[in-house]
Specification:
Elements lengths: L1 E4 L2 H7 L8 E4 L3 H11 L3 E6 L8 E8 L3 H10 L8 E8 L17 E7 L3 E2 L3 H18 L8 E4 L3 E4 L2 E13 L2 E11 L31 H22 L2 H9 L7 E5 L9 E10 L5 E3 L10 E4 L6
Parallel strand pairs: 1-4, 4-5
Antiparallel strand pairs: 1-3, 2-3, 5-6, 6-11, 7-11, 8-9, 9-10, 10-11, 12-13, 12-15, 13-14
Helix pairs in contact: 2-3, 4-5, 4-6
């Protein structure tokens, strides 16, 4: 895999183990050149090689991103130039980062802000749910690899990863298609590793956390180590998705669910209607498109913002 950066000190800090010699390289044309220009604003970068998962061929490292790399990947994929399959974009910090429904995302140093581009160019049943599940499950499995954290994560519908009820990660998924073929999938992952972000508590996110809080004393829980685990999990689960379909990934998502069997309230998140209750009751299951089955409601819940009853004021 080719690794690109404009800051070797940052690159050596986040790559474990670090790479070897860096060579100047020009990326001036084609879809990859357009992406590099949007990420860095320059044509010449430093390039090296690193052996990682076979699914990925390009890793762009930016110490400080002026805008969301997730948004940049979506824009470049839509512009008509065909981005190559297997692109990773990692920022050390940034501005204008966001979570689900464009909610602001704090991005202090020491955490993983990773955007991923896949180009399946094939039919995938329930692909929207499949890629959301791929992102969430991959984060959970990467965290499992950290000493002391195996089996600790739970997935809060639809895109939050929790440890002991604290949110340590949020994921995003955006897919592009032509007819029945999925031409591109962009994943966004914000994983708190070394730093707890300053987040005002709400009923939706009562507390934010970071992996370092839960690691065994003396064990390594660095950004670089966790990034390696995460890239491996993403590659492994992408192959599972394209080879076997969504069923096994959705099964993994349900097994990790923090909401099945719990009393919840789901609020409307449509602009202008925030705060209106969509559904209340005990969650009995999660459907094939990640829809939520709540209480005695006849129709499944397909969108909204979920709060656990135990965290709501009486």
């Amino acid at each position: 895999m080719r690794v690109y950066t404009d800051n070797v000190v940052f690159a050596d800090r986040v790559l474990t183990p670090s790479v070897g010699e860096w060579t100047p390289i020009g990326l001036r044309s084609g879809a990859l050149g357009g992406l590099a220009g949007a990420l860095y604003g320059v044509d010449v970068l430093l390039c090296s090689e690193k052996v990682v998962d076979e699914e990925f061929e390009h890793l762009f490292l930016v110490e400080t991103a002026p805008r969301s790399q997730y948004d940049v990947l979506i824009a470049c994929a839509r512009e008509g130039g065909q981005l190559p399959h297997g692109i990773l974009c990692l920022a050390g910090e940034g501005r204008r980062f966001h979570g689900f429904r464009q909610r602001a995302w704090a991005s202090p140093r020491g955490n993983i802000y990773l955007s991923v581009f896949f180009a399946p160019r094939r039919e995938i049943a329930s692909f929207g749910a499949g890629f959301m599940a791929l992102a969430a499950v991959s984060v959970a499995e990467a965290i499992d690899t950290v000493p002391g954290l195996a089996g600790r994560t739970r997935l809060k519908w639809v895109n939050d990863i929790l440890i002991d009820e604290a949110k340590v990660c949020g994921v995003l998924a955006h897919t592009l298609s032509e007819g029945t073929r999925v031409t591109g999938a962009i994943l966004g992952i914000g994983l708190n590793v070394e730093t707890v972000p300053p987040v005002e508590p709400t009923v939706f996110v009562p507390r934010a956390g970071a992996l370092v809080e839960y690691c065994r004393e003396g064990e390594s829980c660095s950004m670089g180590v966790v990034l390696g685990y995460l890239i491996a999990a993403l590659g492994r689960n992408y192959r599972l998705l394209v080879e076997d379909g969504c069923e096994r990934l959705l099964g993994k998502y349900r097994e990790r669910s923090a909401v099945i069997g719990r009393e919840v309230t789901v609020y409307d998140d449509t602009p202008g209607r925030e705060g209106e209750i969509v559904a209340e009751g005990r969650v009995s299951g999660i459907g094939e498109n990640l829809e939520l089955l709540v209480g005695d409601r006849a129709e499944p819940v397909t969108r909204g913002r979920l709060a656990f009853k135990s965290f709501q004021s009486t």
